[in-house]
Design goal:
617 residues; alpha/beta; Glutamine Phosphoribosylpyrophosphate, subunit 1, domain 1; Rossmann fold; 24 strands; binds 6-O-phosphono-alpha-D-glucopyranose
Length: 617
């Protein structure tokens, strides 16, 4: 979703901003723009399409300024066009602004500003805010306690905003100041050597500095060449904490891989190793989590868990439900965060609310977390991004340590969420009925995972070959039972998001209640099976598909006794404990979707319309 990069320092802003925007491309966007303070004023360039279009445009200009702001836009208010792209300059030419989020009351603002003589060139909500800042700057702004008139005007204008924002702004009269602010949309400040950067996430600034300030909601920062100062709507000048990011630059680069998605699929053994590192008890029978913030005694009082999330992370919640109910015997419910936050669901008072989120910034998941906190429930988060809003706001949490995930289609983050879900089931299970011996078995099984995933990855060529033969189909079904049902959902989501093939995931037996009508030689099915109590039922479901001339790819555990000649293609994963089977079954369908998308010529890492981090409702 939209991305912001701002720069003030000694380097040429245009170069720094373009590099930052390229590193934010993965978030998903449809146009890009920048404003550089050059000589006596703003030089603004905006282009729909890729950052490369913007680079061509600014490449033609002699821009030497070392102060600038830039943006990748994911359209919400107004179509994709050069004029709707950010930055937006106020109609009096004083203020230039980039903005993420949605200003819900922009209609009222606009009506008011029209009466004051301000004019509008775009259909965006952002332009209303740039004009509102200009209005306060002209009419009422005055320096206060060492804060500039520009700063005071931004602060005043933001008081009138209903909705969400992450912003970076410049003023034509202030060649030495950049202002950032956030409420609901992420914004961080990179603190470098003689330079500062504002950005939506760490990947845009990591080549400059690993020292960052994670701005909190309602904070506004004034950045000049030699210092920064943070304030809130109620207080001028508050303390800031500078954190150190422990990413390496290589983590956010493709290396020798053609796509981030493939790189991240192959990083899964390491990502899973990192999720488990140091988190098993010395006696090897249970898991430990440092940031859980809940004593064993408190945990024993919990008699229900609610998991809530969006997208792929929601599928991880469904696997968590299966594992926790199975191994810890606590009832679990799973809700879409976007539904939960507005549903006013009655929850039992001893409910623990758990959110899973790779980015830690998804607005619906954040809304659900805040709603649960408001009602007084204990909240925990599983998240991959250290310092993200959700990680900071939850009462406790577990970091995934999967490393940056750049491909829009989530892969290593998903499997590392499943590993943590299994460890949560183990930990809570051991506080309740799970025996020492069962705990040890589960720990051993988890430790074998990286190696077993490595064995699945060795089938890459075989899966690529299958993908080539199936890439022309327009429809797919993904079918699995029990813990394989969420994997069927995840497989169908992966395929549709990167290859634009219509795909549906269903519990295998539910197929008979509707989806079976789709089965024909033109609609292949991907089935999942492990050697468990429902294996023979799955085989019967496959027979039903074959009887209707449907092609079948079966993703199955090694020891499954699959009748000779039943399926058209098979991808085999190693046998293992019930807790790790969903993870092993996921990897083949990640590779299958990836190769099908590549075969169809799709832009795997930047699929159309999608955003990596969805920061609007
Ligand atoms: C977007 C991404 C998905 C992701 C979902 C939830 O839709 O494209 O890959 O699963 O958001 O994101 P989160 O960061 O909360 O896990």
């Amino acid at each position: 979703m939209c991305g912001i990069v701002g720069y003030i320092g000694n380097q040429t802003a245009k170069t720094v901003l373009l590099e930052g925007l390229r590193r934010l491309e993965y978030r998903g966007y449809d146009s890009a723009g920048m404003a550089v303070y050059d000589r006596d004023g703003f030089n603004v360039s905006k282009k729909s399409g890729r950052v490369a279009n913007l680079a061509m445009e600014v490449g033609k200009r002699e821009l030497e300024g070392s102060l600038g702001i830039s943006h990748t836009r994911w359209a919400t208010h107004g179509g994709v066009s050069d004029s709707n792209a950010h930055p937006h300059v106020s109609s009096d030419g004083k203020i230039v602004l980039v903005h993420n989020g949605v200003i819900e009351n922009f209609g009222d603002m606009k009506r008011f500003l029209l009466t004051k003589g301000y004019t509008f060139e775009s259909e965006t909500d952002t332009e209303a805010l740039s004009n509102l800042i200009a209005y306060h700057y002209e009419k009422e702004g005055r320096p206060t306690n060492g804060f500039s008139r520009f700063f005071m005007a931004v602060r005043k204008a933001l008081r009138h905003v209903e909705g969400t924002y992450g912003i970076a702004a410049l003023c034509v009269d202030c060649p030495e100041e950049m202002i950032g602010a956030r409420k609901g949309s992420p914004l961080i400040l990179g603190v470098g050597q003689d330079e500062f950067l504002l950005a939506s996430d760490v990947s845009a600034i990591i080549t400059h500095t690993s020292n960052v300030v994670y701005l909190n909601d309602d904070e506004i920062v004034s950045v000049t060449r030699d210092k920064f100062q943070i304030s809130t709507s109620s207080e001028l000048g508050v303390d800031a904490i500078i954190d150190t990011v422990n990413w390496k630059i290589e983590d956010s680069e493709k290396g020798d891989y053609p796509h981030f998605m493939l790189k991240e699929i192959f990083e899964q053994p390491a990502a899973i190793e990192n999720a488990m590192r140091g988190r098993f008890s010395d006696d090897g029978s249970t898991a430990n989590f440092g940031g859980w913030n809940l004593s064993p005694h408190e945990l024993r009082q919990i008699d229900r868990i609610l998991f809530t999330s969006c997208g792929t992370a929601w599928h991880a919640c469904l696997v968590a439900e299966h594992l926790i109910e199975r191994f810890a015997r606590i009832p679990v419910e799973v809700e879409y965060a976007s539904e939960f936050r507005y549903r006013n669901a009655p929850l039992d008072k001893n409910t623990l609310v758990f959110v899973i989120t790779q980015s830690g910034e998804t607005i619906d998941t954040l809304g659900a977390l805040r709603e649960a906190k408001r009602k007084g429930y204990r909240t925990l988060a599983i998240s991959n991004v250290v310092g993200s809003t959700i990680a900071r706001e939850a009462d406790g949490g577990i970091y995934q340590h999967a490393g940056p995930e750049i491909g829009v289609a989530s892969t290593k983050a998903f499997t590392s969420q499943l590993v943590i879900a299994a460890m949560v089931a183990l930990y809570v299970g051991r506080l309740r009925d799970m025996s020492f011996a069962s705990g040890v078995k589960m720990v051993e099984a988890l430790k074998e995972l990286p190696d077993k995933i490595g064995r699945v990855l060795k089938q890459n060529d075989h899966i690529k070959d299958i993908a080539r033969r199936y890439a022309h189909y327009a429809d797919f079904l993904f079918l699995g039972r029990q813990s394989m049902f969420p994997i069927a959902l995840e497989g169908s989501l992966k395929l549709k998001e990167i290859s634009y093939i219509h795909a549906e995931g269903y519990p295998a037996a539910e197929m008979k209640h509707g989806p079976i009508a789709l089965i024909s030689e033109d609609c292949p099915s991907v089935f999942f099976a492990s050697n468990d109590e429902v294996f023979h039922k799955v085989i019967s479901n496959i027979q039903e598909v074959k009887a209707r001339k449907g092609k079948v790819i079966l993703v199955h555990a090694e020891s499954c006794d699959v009748p000779e000649g039943l399926v058209d293609d098979a991808i085999i994963f190693p046998d293992g404990h019930e807790a790790i089977i969903p993870i092993l079954a996921t990897v083949p369908v990640q590779l299958l979707s990836y190769h099908i998308a590549v075969e169809r010529g799709c832009d795997v890492d930047k699929p159309r319309n999608l955003a990596k981090s969805v920061t609007v409702e």
